Amino acid sequence: MPRAGLTADRVVAAAADLADEVGFENVSLSALARGFGVKDASLYSHVRNLQDLRTRVAFLAGGELIDRIAVAVAGRSGQDALAAFADAYRAYALEHPGRYAATQIRIDQALVATSPALRRTAEITYGLLRAYGLEEPDLTDAVRLLRSTFHGYCALESTGGFGAPRDVQRSWERVVDALHTALTHWPREAADG
Fold first, then answer.
1. Do 50 and 121 touch, CB atoms closer than 8 A?
2. What is the distance between the alpha carbons of residues 87 and 91, in angstroms, rounded to a whole number?
3. Is 41 helix (H, G, I), strand (E, B) or coil?
4. 180 phi and psi, to 5 degrees?
5. Distance between CA atoms of 184 and 26, rounded to whole angstroms?
6. pTM of structure
7. Which among 83, 108, 39, 93 has a CA at the least distance from the CA of 178?
8. Closest-CA residue to 183 (of 75, 74, 80, 62)
9. Which residues, 6 or more positions from 155, have their beta carbon under 8 angstroms from its beta carbon?
10. pLDDT 10s digits, 77-110
11. What is the CA angle 100-29-54, rounded to 5?
């Protein structure tokens, strides 16, 4: 029988908080159970196993991230929307490092298809890029460019990987400007290419 007050949502939220404190890779069912003052077995009424917990944290974090991005880009277009998207992404990654790490894990595509948050992420991201006149297969390539650029920058920044005296914020602004230029002048590829 589930312990009173413990729900799947509470367990996942606590795991997300723990991920921000100790790192996503260090979240365990034992640590989570200790935080609730219960035995590990009590959590199995709410999550199947560690992989299920990690997937749920990824969905929670993905939903939080896209909610923040959606608010930021609302009513904007072009370079303005791109900058708002980028800034919201970066802020979330830096403020919630464990949750953000969860958004980077590989998730079974059958589960991805059932996630409203991940569908919304695709809709907003592809919508932003369609405003640049991109269509497939260029859309997918452009999504990969944005994701790898944003992720790489945030990963380096969060670990202090930028050692040059140049202001990190100013560099970020220039990176986003360069992405806008790249998207505006994207070399189009035929759909069957």
1. no
2. 6
3. helix
4. -60, -45
5. 41
6. 0.91
7. 83
8. 80
9. 161
10. 999 999 999 999 999 999 999 999 999 999 888 8
11. 30
